[in-house]
Write a structure and sequence with these properties.
- The protein is α+β, with helices and mostly antiparallel strands.
- The protein is 45% helix and 19% strand.
- The protein has 2 domains: 29-142, no CATH class; 151-406, PPM-type phosphatase domain (Phosphatase 2c, domain 1, 4-Layer Sandwich).
- The strands form 3 sheets. The protein has a 6-stranded antiparallel β-sheet with strand order 3-4-13-12-9-10. A 5-stranded antiparallel β-sheet has the order 5-6-7-8-11, covered by helices on one side.
- A hairpin with a 2-residue loop joins strand 5 and strand 6 (189-197).
């Protein structure tokens, strides 16, 4: 599935999704050329081997070689070609040094029959492979559609805050997991969420969907961030009681709720057992460890739903990085954990999109492209305060945009 970006009149970007591409990826180039290379190798060996060593017997494997990269029709054609080439090498004096009488020798006839049987099996194998590839493409398409609904693209600009997101699934075939994020503009400011559902599979996906749905509603209605956490906890607990089985007790979510006030240079944070956010600014990188941690979502009935909001300075030009433990628990080949703070300090104060792109590439390089856990990150950058003239220009652009929409 491909993404494209659309720019609106106010300079705000909204990520859009194109139609799903269900085409099966083409095999690697070397695999497509492998049958031809195999034939060339057999022809190269034929002149330098004694007549009593018929190298043409190696062509029996040619249909199977072709079945790795081509469809059943092509494998059938390759099978016919292999049988004809075996006949040419068996009874052509000018090419192989054998008389025409060898053409119907019982050993060569057995080779023709064996090649035909292997070709039949190769054709069946190719048909099965192409069917599985199309099925996998369909499954990935469905998973990506579910991912689009679950983690819908967030606007790149929310008032005076720029927001960018990153999601990496450890299951490359599915591209969907239990990590979640959201950004919602409200009358109380921009409210952010990042979370990590315990467990994997469909249970994690369902729990993440419930969590996101509850947050999207509570973010607009709750007067403060603690109220948002309580509302989400209530929704998650209610959903858990509707389910049966022992897995209901395992449906808890570690999360960070954040609120960036519009008229104050602060950020409010409720940390529910989640890795602490990072504050990135001209003065360096600061880990915002909670002084009074709150319980994970859906564990309030067990350990008490006492949620606490903490206030941190968040000035223009600074950036807030929320992330899941898939980032910090990434390991290299020696088993060392990813040193997030040290890496970000070395990069400097990058813009949000560049920061997440750099983080993505660095995680892949650090782990040897072997991510073992889902990873999500959200970067929120507070724009510098505009000059008075810029405010007037922005208001004029907004009026023109609304006027064009009415038309």
């Amino acid at each position: 599935m491909r993404r494209r970006e659309r720019r609106t009149a106010g300079g705000r970007g909204t990520e859009q999704w194109s139609d799903t591409d269900l085409s099966v990826p083409a095999p690697p180039l070397w695999m497509r050329w492998l049958p031809a290379i195999y034939v060339v190798a057999v022809l190269a060996l034929e002149p330098i081997t004694p007549v009593q060593w018929p190298v043409s017997f190696l062509l029996i494997a040619l249909p199977v070689v072709a079945a790795f990269a081509y469809g059943p029709a092509t494998v059938a054609v390759v099978t016919v070609f292999a049988v004809l080439l075996e006949g040419v090498l068996a009874g052509t004096p000018c090419c192989a040094g054998r008389s025409v009488g060898y053409l119907w020798d019982r050993h060569y006839v057995a080779t023709y029959i064996s090649t035909a049987l292997v070709g039949l099996l190769g054709t069946i194998l190719a048909a099965h492979r192409t069917h599985r590839e199309r099925t996998l493409a369909t499954v990935r398409s469905v998973a990506e559609t579910a991912q689009r609904v679950l983690l819908r693209p967030v606007p790149h600009r929310l008032g005076r805050v720029c927001v960018e997101t990153l999601y990496l699934s450890a299951a490359a075939e599915a591209r969907i997991g239990g990590d979640l994020y959201e950004a919602v503009p409200t009358a109380h400011g921009v409210r952010l969420l990042i979370g990590d559902v315990r467990g994997k599979g469909l249970i994690a996906v369902e729990t993440a969907a419930t969590m996101l749905g509850a947050f999207r509603e509570a973010a607009h209605d709750a007067p403060d961030l603690v109220g948002v956490a309580h509302r989400v906890e209530t929704s998650m607990s209610r959903r858990a009681t509707e389910l049966s089985g022992t897995e209901t007790a395992e449906r808890f979510v570690t999360a960070v709720f954040a609120e960036i006030a519009e008229d104050e240079k602060i950020v409010r944070i409720v940390n529910c057992g989640h890795p602490p956010p990072l504050l990135i600014g001209p003065d360096g990188v600061t880990e915002l460890e909670p002084t009074d941690p709150s319980p994970p979502i859906n564990l309030g009935v067990l350990i008490g739903d006492h949620y606490h909001a903490e206030v941190q300075p968040f000035r223009p030009g600074e950036q807030l990085l929320l992330y899941t433990d898939g980032v910090t628990e990434t390991r290299d080949r020696d088993g060392n954990f990813y040193p997030l703070i040290e890496r970000i300090r070395a990069w400097g104060n990058l813009p949000p999109r560049d920061l997440l792109d750099h983080l993505h590439q660095d995680l892949l390089a650090f782990s040897g492209a072997e991510l073992r856990d889902d990873t999500a990150a959200l970067a929120a950058y507070r724009l510098p305060d505009p000059l008075p003239d810029q405010d007037e220009d922005e208001e004029q652009d907004e009026r023109m945009r609304r006027r064009s929409e009415r038309r």
